[in-house]
């Protein structure tokens, strides 16, 4: 029996006899969030959710809120991570940040609440998050755009997590970004996704622009991924035993994201697949203005995956050469 201990955390994982048993440490390009194992069952009546070290699950009733939290952004092309508010994104109330565990504090994680609103089984086809306007005559606006361009040029990645309305971080469910690998005929899923991308002068798409080269191909242009399509996968509670009086709602087993660049015209939102991309020139014209509207969509999808197996599809994407096994 092994207990997973992600590289981004350092824990003393204890059994009921207070003895450290087995640990697994794995390293990958995108650090994995925490999987915590608890000795005692925790019952949280206020939010009607239940966590158990035996079954390791959280139950959501219908219309229960799911909170998305953002973390610092990092890049494999730079050693400097940035807090989410370093870039001019839509910000939540940072005073409501969750309590971070020891591993997250020591490794410099900065988990902050987002302004994305998710209610269980409530789909959103196209919803506005916030709007930013930049004037090329304003030095502060120019600096903000420069920072966004720097993040896209160096391929900085978002890292989001979902917490199911809990006051403490009990389970960090990562929001994953899956890319189809044609050679392996399977998806590779990561716990981060690019904030945007850049196309060089010779029309060579860098990093994130490879998501859709036919769409992101204008030379000397940045494409900010200002829209995300969120797919929430859940297991029907009526399938398994649970502590709720009614077999309604479900257990969320995955949240997947597909980032896109969309040019919303004015106050009219267009989240369709053929919506034009948001093109940010490398050298904006003096005196011009740029509007960036952030948006998102949400859809729910039933899944047969059990809560205890929710990490399998992520771990299967990690090459075995990047997994180091330790036994104590």
Automatic annotation (TrEMBL):
<comment type="similarity">
    <text>Belongs to the nonaspanin (TM9SF) (TC 9.A.2) family.</text>
</comment>
<dbReference type="GO" id="GO:0016020">
    <property type="term" value="C:membrane"/>
</dbReference>
<keyword id="KW-0732">Signal</keyword>
<dbReference type="GO" id="GO:0072657">
    <property type="term" value="P:protein localization to membrane"/>
</dbReference>
<keyword id="KW-1133">Transmembrane helix</keyword>
<dbReference type="Pfam" id="PF02990">
    <property type="entry name" value="EMP70"/>
</dbReference>
<protein>
    <recommendedName>
        <fullName>Transmembrane 9 superfamily member</fullName>
    </recommendedName>
</protein>
<dbReference type="InterPro" id="IPR004240">
    <property type="entry name" value="EMP70"/>
</dbReference>
<keyword id="KW-0472">Membrane</keyword>
<keyword id="KW-0812">Transmembrane</keyword>
């Amino acid at each position: 029996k092994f207990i997973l201990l992600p590289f981004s955390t350092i824990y003393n994982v204890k059994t009921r006899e207070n003895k450290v048993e087995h640990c697994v440490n794995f390293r990958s390009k995108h650090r994995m969030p925490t999987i915590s194992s608890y000795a005692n069952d925790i019952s949280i009546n206020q939010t009607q959710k239940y966590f158990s070290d035996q079954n390791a699950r959280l139950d959501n009733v219908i219309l229960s809120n799911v909170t998305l939290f953002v973390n610092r952004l990092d890049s494999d092309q730079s050693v400097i991570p940035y807090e989410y508010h370093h870039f001019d994104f839509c910000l939540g109330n940072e005073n409501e940040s969750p309590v971070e565990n020891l591993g997250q504090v020591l490794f410099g994680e900065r988990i902050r609440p987002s302004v994305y609103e998710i209610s269980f089984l409530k789909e959103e086809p196209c919803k506005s998050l916030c709007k930013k306007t930049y004037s090329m005559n304003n030095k502060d606006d120019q600096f903000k755009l420069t920072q966004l361009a720097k993040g896209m040029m160096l391929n900085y990645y978002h890292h989001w997590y979902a917490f199911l309305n809990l006051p403490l971080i009990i389970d960090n469910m990562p929001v994953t970004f899956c890319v189809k690998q044609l050679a392996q005929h399977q998806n590779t899923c990561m716990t981060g996704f690019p904030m945007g991308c850049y196309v060089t002068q010779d029309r060579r798409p860098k990093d994130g622009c490879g998501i859709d080269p036919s769409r992101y191909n204008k030379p000397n242009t940045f494409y900010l991924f200002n829209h995300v399509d969120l797919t929430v996968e859940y297991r029907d509670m009526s399938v398994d035993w649970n502590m709720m009086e009614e077999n309604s709602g479900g257990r969320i087993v995955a949240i997947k994201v597909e980032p896109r660049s969309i040019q919303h015209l004015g106050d009219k939102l267009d989240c369709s697949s053929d919506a034009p991309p948001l093109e940010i020139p490398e050298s904006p014209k003096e005196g011009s203005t740029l509007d960036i509207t952030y948006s998102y969509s949400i859809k729910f999808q039933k899944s047969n995956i059990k809560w205890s197996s929710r990490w399998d599809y992520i771990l299967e994407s990690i090459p075995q050469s990047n997994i180091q096994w330790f036994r104590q």
